[in-house]
Structure formats: structure tokens, C-alpha cells
Amino acid sequence: MSGPPGAGKSTALLALDRHHPDLSRFGVRDYGLRLAAAGHPLGLAMREALLRQELLSNELVRLEFAHFLDQLSTEVGLVVLEGYPRDLPQCDDLLRTALDWGVRVTGFVVVTVPDDVARSRVANRRLCTGCGATTAGPEAAACPACGGAMVRRRDDTAVGFARRLADYHAIVDDLRAYFGERAMLREVDGTRPADEVRAAIRDALYAEDTVSLPPAVR
Ligand SMILES: [Zn+2]
Q1: Position 32 in a domain
Q2: The domain spanning residue 107 has which CATH number?
Q3: pTM of the predicted structure, to 2 decimals
Q4: If we measure between CA atoms, which residue out of 80, 57, 58, 55 comes closest to residue 68?
Q5: Do 186 and 107 touch, CB atoms closer than 8 A?
Q6: Cα 150 to middle of ligand 1, angstroms
């Protein structure tokens, strides 16, 4: 799954997490830091680069993803990948690893919004320190869902936004072409209201031909 910052991916996934217990998420950074915290050699090998926000070698990411699949509970019916794959060799790695593990990867979901829409959303949004919910405007002092304090996301500065947007643009055309050629590309219009975006993402993820992990596999 991909999209520029401010496309509504995190908000939608947070809501989907709550309603779909069979959904699991793989984030290169989050999973790597978890492995590092657990003292796993692979996590320790990635730790420094992750903390410095540097890119990991494709080999490390490949091993990390294989480790994730290895640990996956049989309850999981669908995995959403975030921040992976991020180049064409990683796309090949992903499909090969999935094949090795008997896992189907059939959908690449891109949530699109124009750059100026993304920029103003990110400048205005606030994040709940309690439950992770995001609000569109800066006016709420407390989270409407849990009452937690609302703050700016640490990387929602103009510089942080520009860096993440450039990063997205640098890779998304390649990924679109790669998955488009394989009839695996699913685009979601992120300019629609949040509940419609959420429904469109859910439909894209749970479309009949995108169910990626038959329960019997692992
Ligand atoms: Zn909250």
C-alpha cells in the first residue's frame, strides 16, 4: 500500500484494524524496531539505520519480511505492507518470498491526492497521543474518540512533509508500472470524504481476488 503523506492511509488502516481482527500490518520500520527491542540479531543489524532514518539494504528487508511471515499467526487472513516494496528489486523479492511461503500478493493499493491537498492536510492535522487517531484540523484540544492530547506528528513539519512527498514521488511510478503490468494495481481516490476512502481501501484490500493468505497456508 502506498500514497503521499496526508492521503488518509493511517486513518483508514487504524479504523480497519479495529473492525478486521484477521488483518495484520507489516511496516519495515516498526517491525525492524520491534525485532531490535526483542534483541533479535536481525533487528540489531537494522537498528542503527532505522534510528537514523536511513534505508536498509534490500537483503535485510528481504530477511525481515521472511521473518515476519514466519512468525505470522494462522488467524491472519490479510497483510497490509507499509513502506515495502520501495524499488523494483524489492518488488521481485516480495513476489519471490511470497511464492516461497505460499502467500498470494495480488494487490498494490495506491491512495492518491494532489500534492497541494496533501500539503494543507498535513499542515493542519493533529495526532492523538492516546489512541493514534488523526483529526483534520488543529482546533480540537482533546481527542474526540478517547480524550487524549492532540499534537502535531513529529515529522509533519514542512521539511518532513517535503522529504516524504519527494520519497513517494521517487518510487510510486515504478511501483505503479510494475504492479500495473501484473494487473495488481488498485487506485483509491484519497480526495473523497474519509469514510468513503476507508470503504474504498477496505474493498480494494478485501476484493475476492486480493485475499492473500489462505488460512490453511500458515
Ligand atoms: Zn484518541
Answers
A1: yes
A2: 3.40.50.300
A3: 0.85
A4: 80
A5: yes
A6: 8
